[in-house]
Design a protein that fits this description.
The chain is mainly β. The chain has one helix and 15 strands. It holds the Pfam family OmpW.
Amino acid sequence: MMSTVRTASTRALAATATLLLLTAAASAADMAPLMDPAPEAATETFAAPSPWQVRVRGLGVITNDSGSVNGVAGSDLSYSDSVIPELDITYYLTDNFAAELILGTTYSNIYGEGSLAAVGKVGKTWLLPPTLTLQYHFTDFGAFKPYVGAGVNYTMFYSQKGDAASSLDVKNTFGTALQVGADYMINEHWGVNFDVKKLFLKADFDATIGGTDYSGKAKLDPWLIGAGITYRF
């Protein structure tokens, strides 16, 4: 009799335990999150612009038309103006500061003026004036990006030929440069550019005219006025 009671009690306890486990499982299912976890915020990344930029311009070279020949009172010189293609390469050190190398070559006819007017065309020389400027770019005007700059140039004279002069030698020389300009960016890569530079360029020269040797200084001091296309890599 006691064995039967114990068996019944054991079965009752087992049934109760099973019922409690089933109830706990059901409760856990009911406590599942009602909302899907919030997705991680999407992060949008933008590639930083390349520090490299190039421009191609059409450039007007307008000289100062001044100079002198040593020992000749009232002497003066003038030079022909020209229009040339120009390439410049810019490297941005920061968003605001950049270094620009300007490359182009042109020729100039040299004429006697003042007391040398009767001489006419003295000769012709080609010149290559690579110019390096440090620029400050303003960044608060949206697509319109003005800048100012200052720097140095080294002008090399080559393929020199005398006309009234039987020989002509214009010396290579250093100069300084001031610059102001602006880009208007059509998109992140392409833009249009307008640029004005003033070179302070005074070169010494030697010439032989009518068997007499002369020396002097050619004060070119040209304005370089250009417009063209900008490409930012």
